[in-house]
Specification:
Layout lengths: L17 E3 L9 E3 L7 H9 L10 H8 L6 H98 L24
Antiparallel strand pairs: 1-2
Length: about 190
């Protein structure tokens, strides 16, 4: 059976702007947008809305829905299900927004951390250059100290050799007590003791 608008009889095709009764879905009762007194733009807006704002009941179902006893268990179950579904959608949307917000915060924190590390790295070349200069100065001091130490050791060795030579030379000397020293010079250029 081909569906048609129950009011004007227009055949409802895939590209026809129309709405089906929400209650008697099996009977396929339809009403076209012009009979609903909706412009094409308004129909498109309502039909594509994420809140599903386009609802329609045929006159028979409208009487049942509007005159229904609210205390009826079927109506209460339907209302409860609708509320639970709406609440679940709202809760999911809220969770999605919170997750997006948390993700953005994490991304911002990460970017801030990276920028901080980059600033520290940019400052490091100065520190590294200073360290390298200090290291060079320490090496120079070490080198200078090594030369001074070598010179001091060589001088001490020379003094030790000179002292040993003096000790060897004095081994053959004779010391006489009670005799005054002469003013004459010996052949080596020193004063002669008598």
């Amino acid at each position: 059976m081909i569906p048609s608008c129950f009011e004007c009889g227009e055949i409802i095709g895939d590209d026809t702007k129309a709405d089906q009764c929400e209650k008697c879905v099996e009977n396929e009762t339809w009403k076209c947008a012009s009979c609903l007194d909706l412009s094409d733009q308004l129909y498109d807006k309502l039909a594509t809305s994420s809140k599903s704002n386009l609802h329609w009941f045929c006159p028979k179902c409208e009487n049942i829905v509007l005159n229904a006893d609210v205390s009826s268990p079927n109506i209460l179950t339907t209302i409860e299900q609708h509320l639970m579904t709406s609440f679940a959608k709202f809760e999911q949307e809220l969770l999605d927004k919170v997750n997006v917000s948390l993700q953005r915060k994490e991304e911002n924190d990460l970017l801030e951390s990276i920028e901080c590390r980059l600033r520290k790295l940019e400052e490091r070349p100065v520190v590294i250059e200073e360290f390298q200069r200090l290291e060079h100065k320490v090496d120079q001091l070490r080198c200078n100290m090594d030369e001074a130490v070598v010179e001091a050791v060589q001088e001490a060795l020379l003094e030790d050799k000179a002292e040993e030579a003096e000790i060897d030379r004095r081994k053959t000397n004779v010391i006489v007590h009670g005799v005054s020293e002469s003013d004459a010079q010996d052949q080596t250029g020193g004063s002669m003791t008598t």
